[in-house]
Structure formats: C-alpha cells, structure tokens
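Journal club side-thread
Mid-discussion, someone asked how the predicted structure for our own chain would compare to the paper's figures. Pasting it here so we can look after the session.
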Amino acid sequence: MRYSILMFETDTARSSAWSEALLRIANQQGITITVTVARTAPVAQFHAGRRQFHLLVAPLSDESLNLVTRLRTRSTHLRALFLHPPETPEQLLQDVRWRGYTLAVVPESPDAFVFAVSKALGLTLIDDPEHHGRPAATVSDVQVLLDVLRWQTKAQLVLYTDYIGNLITQRGDPSKLELDAISSLIAGSFGNSFELGRALHDPNTRHLSVLEGEQFDLYATNAGNYRLLALIFDKEFVSPKLGYVWLQLKRSADQLSHMRIVEGNVGEVIAAELTESLNNEFDRIFGSDLVDTRKS
C-alpha cells in the first residue's frame, strides 16, 4: 500500500520528529508512506498542484479549512486530519466533524501523532488502548469472511480494498481481470458519494454501487469510511438478485468495518460466528430461492 501525506506545520523540529516516527513505523508494517512538509498554506497548495495526496495534516484553523476546500476541488480522495488544542470549543469541533474531517488533540509525542494519522487513513500502524474492545482479526480471518461471502452469493470474485483503491485482499478467480485497475475505478466511483455525505453533514453513510453488464455484474459498498467491498459475478454461471446480494454485502461490510486488523494468528472464531448468523438469517428470509444458477 502507498500513501502520500501533505503536512502543513510551521514548527520544523516537530514536523521532523513526527515524519521520522511515521516513516519508521510504516516501514515496519510494510506500508509505503511519503511525507511532504509545507510551512505555509500557499506552499502546501503549490505542492498539491504538482501531485496527488491522500491526507492533509494541518492545525485546525480557518486557513487550514479553506486550504482543504481548495485542494478537494481537484482531489476528491483527499482526507484531512486537523490537530487542535485541548481547550478548543466543542461546537467548533462538532462543525468540523459534520464536514467529515478527522480531529485529534495536538499530539504530545511522535507515537501519538502516528496513531492520529493511522486513524485518519484507516490503518493500524500503532496500538491504542481504546481500541482493544473491538474484535481482533488477521488478514487470514478476513479472507475466511470473504470466502463465506463468495460461497453464499456464488460470486466469481470478492475484492476488499481501501478507499483509494489499494487492494488489501481478494478471494476467488481473477481470471483475466485487471484487479488493480478495477479496484482503482471502484474507489473512484465512491469519491463523490463520500463527498455527498459530507455535504449533507452526514459522513457516516452507506453507499451501494451496481454495474450490470452483458458478461459481468458488479456490486460494491463501503465497509465504514476507509474500506470498500465488491462482488463480481460471471453472468454465464449466475444471475444475482439485488435484494439478496445487498443484504449479504451490507452485513459483511458491517462486520468488516468493526474489525481491528492485527498481526499474528487470532483464529477464525469470528468467521465461524458470522457464517452461522448469515446462514440462519438468509434461510429465514429467502429460503432456498437465493440466486438463479444457470449452470452447475
């Protein structure tokens, strides 16, 4: 995975310490991150005019809010992390949250900065005690969930990506499909949907994208604000039903959005529980009439 970060910070020593900690920890996780530091808003806008960034990190101020508004006119994927002092009025913070931006108190340590950036990008670069209550899962556990989803829907392929199109994992037969291109285009189609949620002051929205073709159907939704889940069907073998696919896709996306991905071997208890609950719910609602299978 590759991410580009634009940091608007006037304190040279602080920006250097933050950048070094972020790059070091990201490298340990096998994630490529580049950090560009700008001391003023005009310089930050100059850099943004020359390349695409995934995250803007800046102090919470009118200048920074105006900056991210200008930058988003050419990059709908851009996220923003605003750092504020502890005494900032709650009403101001609420207004910023309604616009879909991430907030954090000005970090007191480089590790705290890394955690704030990690949260803004939807990554798990560093542990946080507040998140220990969330279900832990490894990539292997996620793959089991995707296998369940694929088996239930008879999909040819299941894709799980981040919000900018980086492929996290996939299950099924990619055949001759260009997965990198497909993942990127799916993410691009969700850019305006996320913006619409922000414009409505309701950033935590659910989006469904459906593409029906002669040979393939594609269904995609967001798993929280940082991940996307997509199903691809080969119409030579199966004709999916929208209501059934949407129910299953939504449930799986909800499960994935609450997981905390960790390293190591956590086990597959989550997947087993999800499989049982999905089977019971689908049998209750749809019975045996789930999909039209054209070939065995």
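Post-session note: The mean pLDDT is 82.
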